[in-house]
Each structure stands twice: as C-alpha cells, then as structure tokens.
C-alpha cells in the first residue's frame, strides 16, 4: 500500500492531565528541512514509523543514525533530548502514536517497551498500515468513554510493531502466522470476529488454523479471543469505567452476558473484581 503524502492528525486526552492522558496518532508530513527537530524534549511517550522519505536521528552523544522507510523512532520522556533531521526531498511521511507518561512508566516497569535503541527496524507492510489507519479513524470518532480502550489498542500496536524481525524459515513462518493470528484475535475487541475469516487472512484452512493455533498458544482461537476481551475488560474496570460501559466496549450487547462470561473466565464477578483490585 503506497501511503498518501497528506497530513492528518488527531489529539485526544483521557481526563484533564495532558501529560498522562494524551492519546494521539496520525500521519505527519515534513517536506522541508526546516521541519527537522533538534534537541526536542517531550513529557510523554511518542514514536513514529517512517512511511516515506529519509533522514537522520542524532543521539545524545551526537551519533548520526540514518532513518529510512520501515524505521521506527522512539521519543522517550524524562529529559531525553531528541534530534531528527529531515531529508528535504518532499517525501517525508510518518505515522506517529503518542500516549501518556504514566502509561510509558507502567510498560517499562514490566519490561515490555524496548527502549535500548531510539531507531529500530520494524516489519512495515499493508497489514500494519491497515492497523494504523483503523486506529486513527477510531480515534477521530470515539466517545470519551471509549478512549481507554483505544489507549490499550495503541499500546498493543506499538509493542507488537517494535518486536524484532526474525530470519525466515519454515518453523519461523508458521510461528509468524500464529503471532499474526494472535494479533488479529486481539484487535477490535468491541466487534464480532469470524474465526473462519482469520484463517482465510492467514491463507490457512480453518481446521489447520485451529490445530496450529492451539499447539502454539495452548488454547483454541475462540477461547483466546475471549481471554483478550476479558483482559481489556479488567483494565477498563480498574480505570473506573462502569460495568455496563465495559460490556459494550468489549463487544457484549447486554451486561448479563458479559458478567456471566467475565465470572467464568476470571473466577469472580466484575463488581467483586473492581472492589478487590482497587
């Protein structure tokens, strides 16, 4: 998918604390060198993937790292200065994702965010572009109550995108297919997803997909999907979202069905979970 060189960004905030509540993403063009950023400081986490164009990233010790299409640049909060130089050929287009400082601190505390290098080569393809576009379109129209869910989705995209690229082999190819299956089953939690369509997306028969997925993850695709819904539900409940709103945000048409599934999967009711964990 060839990206269109068009600026289109969206900034939202969960609550009133911008540093901790920011949730933003979009497509940013930088056609001239004057749009380079030198010694740039940021209070929250942000990263971008270069979709078109080229440039350089300067480290704090003034090392010059080339940036090309498919490179992801992380901007770490907390007094770290960032310098990004645009090659002025009019082709620079990036997709960026930003979320709050407290979210960044939490992900780092779990060693989930690889911040060992500011520039990282990632797997950039049509599937990733689709996920970027889907997140951006959802953020533009989301109600405020839906922002915590989209924050989780933004984190998921960042974390999965920053995973290192592995050399291909027959076993790795199957592993990559199953990892892609996990991503598909973890996305768009508020919608109904067809497991047969997931198998088709991976160019597999449904029976083979189900067999290989169970071998890879230890559970069936359907159960994996439910567990992902409940994982998001737990985070939403802890963030203060009501049981009724949480049920809707993870794709249940009524509170009763959600409560029944949550209790079966987690072992306690949503109401009791909120009381015991807060």
From TrEMBL:
Keywords: DNA-binding, Transcription, Transcription regulation. GO terms for molecular function: DNA-binding transcription factor activity; sequence-specific DNA binding. Coiled coil: none annotated. Transmembrane segments: none annotated. The keyword Transcription applies. Gene3D superfamilies: Homeodomain-like. SUPFAM superfamilies: Homeodomain-like (SSF46689), Regulatory protein AraC (SSF51215). This is Helix-turn-helix. Pfam families: HTH_18.
């Amino acid at each position: 998918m060839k990206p269109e060189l068009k600026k289109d960004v969206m900034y939202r905030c969960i609550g009133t604390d911008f540093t901790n509540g920011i949730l933003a993403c979009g497509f940013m063009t930088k056609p001239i060198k004057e749009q380079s950023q030198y010694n740039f400081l940021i209070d929250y986490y942000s990263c971008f993937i270069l979709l078109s164009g080229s440039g350089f990233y300067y480290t704090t010790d003034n090392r010059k790292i080339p940036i090309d299409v498919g490179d992801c640049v992380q901007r770490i909060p907390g007094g770290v200065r960032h310098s990004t130089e645009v090659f002025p050929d009019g082709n620079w287009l990036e997709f960026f994702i930003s979320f709050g400082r407290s979210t960044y601190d939490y992900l780092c505390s779990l060693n989930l965010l690889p911040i060992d290098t500011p520039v990282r080569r990632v797997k950039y393809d049509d599937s990733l572009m689709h996920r970027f576009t889907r997140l951006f379109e959802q953020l533009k129209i989301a109600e405020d109550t839906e922002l915590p869910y989209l924050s989780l989705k933004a984190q998921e995209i960042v974390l999965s995108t920053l995973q290192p690229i592995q050399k291909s082999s027959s076993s790795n190819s199957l592993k990559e297919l199953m990892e892609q299956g996990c991503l598909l089953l973890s996305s768009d939690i508020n919608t109904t997803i067809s497991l047969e369509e997931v198998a088709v997306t991976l160019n597999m028969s449904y029976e083979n997909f189900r067999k290989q997925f169970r071998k890879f993850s230890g559970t069936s695709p359907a159960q994996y999907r439910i567990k992902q819904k409940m994982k998001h539900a737990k985070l939403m409940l802890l963030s203060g979202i009501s049981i009724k709103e949480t049920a809707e945000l993870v794709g249940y048409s009524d509170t009763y069905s959600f409560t029944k599934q949550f209790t079966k999967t987690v072992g306690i009711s949503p109401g009791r979970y909120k009381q015991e964990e807060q």
